[in-house]
Each structure stands twice: as structure tokens, then as C-alpha cells.
Amino acid sequence: MDVMAGREIRNQTSMQEFILLGFPGTWYFQMSFAGVFSVMYFLTIMGNVSIIAVVRIHRRLRTPMYFFLCNLSFLEIWLTTTCVPKAISVMVGTSQTISSSACLLQLFVLLSLGATECFLLAVMAYDRYLAICHPLRYSSLMNGTFSAQLAFLSWLCGFLAISVLAVLITRLSFCGPNVINHFLCDIDSWIALSCMDTRLVELATFIDSFIVVMISCVITLVSYIYIISTILRIPSAQGRQKAFSTCSAHLTVVTIWYGTGIFLYVKPSAQNSLDLNKTINVFNTIVTPLLNPFIYTLRNKEVKEALGKTVRRVLSGFQTPGI
Q: What is the pLDDT of residue 153?
């Protein structure tokens, strides 16, 4: 009898699937939101793919700065693809369920890509530090091999940083409701639904997030302290403006990313702000990947010129002689 009871409990705790609620509202509201998400997803993919394509086409953009930018664009494509298509299917009502394994995979990928973006932004800040503070030695300090190693290290550390936390999350048991009040699988929802003591997972989430954010923030902050001090010593206003323009786009992206990321993950408790987390997640996983290519395009003269040349080249290819 005890064995049978134990098996029944294990069957109850091994939740096979979850139900994603998405956003509350009428059918019209859901369809409107799904349409907005679809447009934003399309623009995000097109914008980030365009940046990668432009950098690949134009030789003068094949520098470490734009190599890191391509890595960031590639990351943003996967970040938004991991959650937006499923979120749209939830809102239109075609697929509101997600298997526990798929939910865990989505959670792991989102957290890992988020950590990787932190490290990538720190590497990009270090790259700008070398370019502005050591311009004569920049090409030797930040060569192709070193930039590739830094990019690989960012991806590796991003995924390794979440691996321990992922192991702890897999040990959570669920014996109650399987409804997630979100459009994606996030760690706060898993903690809220678990019938186990989640203090260890919450503590690990806080420590893991704090370490990732602290390391990347320190590198970024120190780099920009040196960058700003160097820019202020440039005698001409035109020189200062030119130097600052090379890092202003990155500084904007850093501010947006860390502003939302710190609120989401670096906090002692994870169970008291699920509705607000949902709103912040929209900004972090959908709006930010959409804004990044436009920020880098509009605030970067070289990218704008290269993109304009590419567009003119494509348009001229559609012109038929004699018409």
C-alpha cells in the first residue's frame, strides 16, 4: 500500500505539461496583441538579419566592433524566437499547453541567452575602451583571433552560468495547479507552482544573477569610466563628438538591458511580482531585441551608409534595362 501511494505521489509530482495563460482580456484584445507581437517579431528578425548581412557584405565593417555586433544580433534572433512564436500561439488559442521538458528547455535557453548578452555587452564595452583609450595599439590588441575568443568565452560563460541553476530547477516537484500566469516559462512561475521548499532555488537564482550582472557591470562600468575620461581630454568638440558617437549606441543598449534585467532577476524573492514580471519580460524579450538594430543603425554613421548602399544595390538589381 505504501509503495502504491509512493508511486501515485511521484506520478502527481512529475507534471507532464503546463498551461500558459498569456495575457488577460477579450478575444479582440488577444488578437490585437497577437498581431502586434507578430509585427514586432518580423521586424526584429529582419532588423537583426540585416545587420549581420550588411556586416558580411561590406569589407570595411569586418572589424571586432561589428563582429561583436553580429554576435549580439544573432543572439537577439534566438532570444525572441525562443518565446515569441509560442506566445503568439497562446494568444490566438491554438496551443496554450507546453510540455514540462519544452518549458524547462525554454527557461534554460532564455536564461542562458540573457547571461550571454550580459557578457557580450561587457566585451563590447571593453572593445570600445581599447579603441578610444588605446587607438594606436587597438589593431594589435583587439585582433581577429582575440575577438573570436572573447565572443566564444561570452557564449560559453553565459550557458555555464545557468547550468547549475538548471540542475536545481529540474529537481522541483509540482503537485498542484499546472497553470502558468505568463506567456512564457520563467523561473518565477516555476517557483510559484512548485510544492517543494524553493528557498534554495531562489537563493541560487539571486546569487547566479548577481554574479553575472556584477561581473559584466564592473567590466562595463570601468571601461566607460576610462572612455569618458579620455573623451573629456580631447581638445576639439568635434573630436569628442566623434569619439562618443562610436559608443553611444552601445551605452543606450546597456542601459535598457541592465535596467530590465536587474529588476527581473537580482531580487531576494521571486513570488510576489508575477504580473509585473510579465510586463517587464515583454520589454526584455521582445521590445529590446527589436530596438537594438534600430539603435545601432540610427546612431552609427558607418552602418547607416553601408545599409543605404546595400538597399540601393538591391533596388538597382530589380531594375530591368529598357524600362
A: 96
